[in-house]
Each structure stands twice: as structure tokens, then as C-alpha cells.
Amino acid sequence: MPALPDGETPPDDGALPPSVAAGAATRDLGVYLHVPFCRVRCGYCDFNTYTNAELGGGADAASYADTALREIDLAAGVLADPALAAAGMPARRVSTVFVGGGTPTMLPVADLARMLDGVRRTWGLADGAEVTTEANPDSVDAAALAALAAAGFTRVSFGMQSAVPAVLATLDRTHDPRRLPDVVRWAREAGLDVSVDLIYGTPGESLEDWRTSVEAAVALAPDHVSAYALVVEPGTKMGAQVRRGELPLPDDDDEARKYELAEELLSAAGLGWYEVSNFARREPGEPGGDGAAPSAPRHASRHNLAYWRGQDWWGVGPGAHSHVGGVRWWNVKHPRTYAHRLEQGLSPAAGREVLDDATRELERVMLGVRLAEGLQLAPGTGAVPEHLRPAVADLIGQGLVDFAAARTGRIVLTLRGRLLADVVVRALTP
To answer: Which residues form the Radical SAM core domain (predicted)?
Structure first.
């Protein structure tokens, strides 16, 4: 698992500086709930996850909901600090909740419902709030999905990854791909929006294997598909296998061909990209994204859009990251340390940083350029700044950026640009 970033030591009570109140009334507030438990740890995964057998002492799955609720109580106190209120921090209802992991559905639905109730009781949920949980296909059944919907969840994201058993085996995924149609049908019957996650570039995966997976995902008629290129992380089982020569590194050209195939098949099925790795279905009559200010489709992940747009969110759980008004912080990683600090009435934050204007602008470009709605280079002007015009002209010439959008001061990536998004970012942030 990656080490936590460096940063300044946060106060034990988690208090935030009054500066975070500036502009808060124009920003949404989201909550991320991290559930760090998995039945087995997949060989490619470097997320902060644990099997239940590794934990104990108030940090295991049975006690986790109570621990997370302690952090929600702490968060409520921090955001309601009179010093923040005096600086203009408004009371905001939560627009999105995302329960991720790990495998959140390793917990009983009753525990997930209690955590969501804690958010609802503390801040309230905005009208039409999006409430998502991740789930493995083998971790839920029809009754569990119906119970999640009854508890207030609106969306479920299934970790499909592949439809090819040999590819799943290389990834150490344990579910039977034949179960996906059942779990999607059960989610639909419960009234939940459905997203599926795919991974391309697994060692040994052929282009036809990838076609099989994308076509299988399309056949599920999901509202949303995420398609991520495999990254072999140091410190993982797969990283060790690659280092020993047991598995080949993913090939950039192979991954590019697979991305182009995904774009072709998903677009043909009515799933348009709204972020480089994410595709969503538009409802009939919904605006299609044409014009000067395109909008994300209704079935886009609004929680993830909040990250990409620099909104506010509080991350609950070990290793979770948060961002409010230009202050970013991250929690201690181990669930036992996390639980112990909260039991003592202390913030679980391990470090934080206050982002300066230059860093915030860099991150706005890095994240915003990935969105189909486009990055406004100089907000409010409708023009490309003078100092960036040569770089933008060069990007257009390379076929990376859409010419018509650039004339309005927006950077919108072409298909080739999506494959080379990092090149675009470097050109715009000299």
C-alpha cells in the first residue's frame, strides 16, 4: 500500500482555518465513507484494505460502523465551529454520499444503513442526493440490494473488472462473471441505478478478451461504466510477479487499442464519455452536451464529479482523504490506530496541507481537462489567455484538443487527446 503523503501536523481536534469558509456557499458538500474490509486482497490492489482476520481490538468489521459514526460526530463539530460560522461557513446538506472500499457490502446492510443515517442525522441529505455503494457481485443478493434501496441508497457500483475467467484469475478476483446479470437485475428491481467497473490491460488479456468484457458489460444495460487501465503498483502481489518476470508489464499501445475499442462499443450502446475513464447513459431528451456549456449526463457519478470539480468532501475512515475550501487532509491508515484515536476523542487525521493559489490552479487544470464538459482556461472570459495561445494552437495541431471548443476558451480533449491527457496537462502548466 502506498505511504501517506507528507504534510503539516493537523490539530488534535481537527479544527479547520477560517479561510475554508470562503466561497463555501457555492460548493457542494459530499461524504466518502471508507470500508476497509475485503474477503481476499486482489493481487493488483494497493487500496487501504484488510481481511477481517488481520484486525481486532475495536477495528474489525463488527465494530466498524460505530467507529465511523464517531468520526461523523467529530466532523459535525468541526464544520459547525463558531469560528467558521463567523467567517461565513453556511450549514450545508450533503449532496452525495459514496461508500467505497474495500468491499463495503462485507458489512451487514444494517451497518451501512446506520452509517448513512449518521450522515443524514448530522447534516441532512439534499433533495435528490446521490447515495452510492460499491459491491462485489458475490457480496450481495436480491434481499440485500432491496434493503440498501430501502435504507436510502440510490446507486450501486459493481466491481465487474472482466467477463473472462482467466483474466479474473490473474487479477485474483473471486466472483463468477455469470452472476453479473442476476445482481444487475436485482439492483434494477430494487430501483437502484447501476454502474459497472472494468479494468483493461491485465497481463495475458487479448484484445478479443477485452471485447468480450465490454460487450458483456453493454449487455447488462448499465447506467454507467468505468473503464480503467491497469496500473501495476509497487508493493502489490502483482507488482512482485512483474518484478520476478512471472507476468509482463501492461503495454501502452495495447492499452490504447483497448481504450479505443471501449469508446467504440460503449458509444454505440449510448454510453458517452464524460470523464476520460467514465461513460454514462443519457436519457431520451436529455441535453447531449453540445454547445458552449455542455452538462454531464444525469447518470454520471455526481460524487466523483465533485472531486474533479474541486468541491468539498469529508472522507470518513482509515486512510480516507478530505478536502474543504483548499485544505486537504488524510487519516491514519491502520484501522486499529484510527479506532484508537477516535475512542480518545481525537481527530484521526495524520497530516494535512493548505493549498496555495498556484497549487489549486494546477489541480483545476489536471482534473478539469479530463472532463468532456471542458476546462475553461480563464473562467469568465471566454478566451484563451495570451500566454497559452501558442501551446493551445500546438495541441490543436497535434489533434489532441477540439478546435471549436478552444475558440471559446475551453479545452475539450479529442479521442487522441484522451489517450494523451498528461501531454495536454504538461502543455497547459509550463
So the answer is: 23-271
Query: Whole-angstrom Cα distance, residue 185 to residue 162?
Result: 18
Interatomic CA distance for residues 187 and 144, integer angstroms: 9
Distances (CA, A) of 77 to 83, 326, 332: 11, 19, 20
389 within a domain of the structure (yes/no) = yes
Q: What is the structure's pLDDT at 333?
A: 93
Q: What single DSSP character describes residue 129?
A: E
The C-alpha cell at 125 is: 441529505
Q: Cis peptide leading into 102, omega within 30 of 0?
A: yes
Report whether 390 contacts 422 (CB < 8 A).
no
* Structure confidence by residue, pLDDT tens digits, 269-286: 999 999 999 999 988 878
Q: Per the structure block, which three cell numbers stand in for 45?
A: 490492489
**Residue 347 sits in the same domain as residue 376:** no
Does some domain include residue 11?
no
Distances (CA, A) of 181 to 176, 220, 333, 399: 11, 6, 35, 39
- CA-to-CA distance for 137 and 41, rounded, in angstroms? 15
Least confident of 42-46, 167-171, 303-307: 42-46
Residues 404 and 264 in one domain: no
Estimate to the nearest angstrom the gap between the alpha carbon of 421 and the chain centroid: 18
Backbone phi, then psi, for 224, in 5-degree steps?
-155, 140
Task: Report the Cα–Cα distance between both ends of the chain, in Å, rounded.
Answer: 31
Q: What is the DSSP string of 37-62?
A: B-SS--TT--SS-B-GGG--TT-SHH
The lowest-confidence range among 49-53, 58-62, 200-204, 417-421 is 49-53
Other C-beta atoms lying within 10 Å of the C-beta of residue 17 = 15
* Domain edge (last residue) among 333, 354, 375: 354
Q: What is the DSSP string of 316-362?
A: ESTT-EEEETTEEEEE-SSHHHHHHHHHTT---EEEEEEPPHHHHHH
Q: In terms of DSSP H, where are the helices of 193-269?
A: 207-219, 237-243, 252-268
Grid cell 464544520 in the structure block, residue: 79
The reply to whether 8 falls in a domain is no
* Whole-number Å distance between alpha carbons of 311 and 366: 15
Strand 224-229 to 155-161 pairing:
unpaired
Whether 379 and 350 share a structural domain: no
| Cell triple for 169 | 484469475
- Going by the DSSP 8-state scheme, the letter that residue 413 receives in this structure is B
For residue 406, give its domain range.
Answer: 357-428
